[in-house]
Amino acid sequence: MILEAVKYMILGMGIVFLFLLLMVWVLDWQHKLLLKYFPESFEENKEPPVTSKREKLKKVAAITAALHHMKNS
Are 9 and 16 in contact (CB under 8 A)? Predict the structure, then answer.
């Protein structure tokens, strides 16, 4: 009975291992495919857009106004 449990444990772990191996292979293939056909969308050294202090303050003001509106309604 113990040997049968060990057999099923190894079978289950093997199936999970093969599934994860297949998933890693498919995701790697997908990554290469996307880089091939859409290289501009996946630039790794892409700089974030520079926002000015005024734009940041506008966002803070909008969030503050929304919170104030939520509290008072």
Answer: no
Q: What is the pTM of this model?
A: 0.52
| Integer Cα distance of 64 and 73 in angstroms | 14
- Residue 51, classed as helix, strand or coil, is coil
Res 57: pLDDT:
93
Query: Nearest 5°: phi and psi at 53?
Result: -65, -35
Note the pLDDT tens digit of each residue in 23-66.
999 999 999 999 888 887 766 666 777 789 999 999 999 999 99
What's the CA gap between 29 and 35, in Å, rounded? 10
d(CA 11, CA 54): 61
CA distance 43 to 28: 16
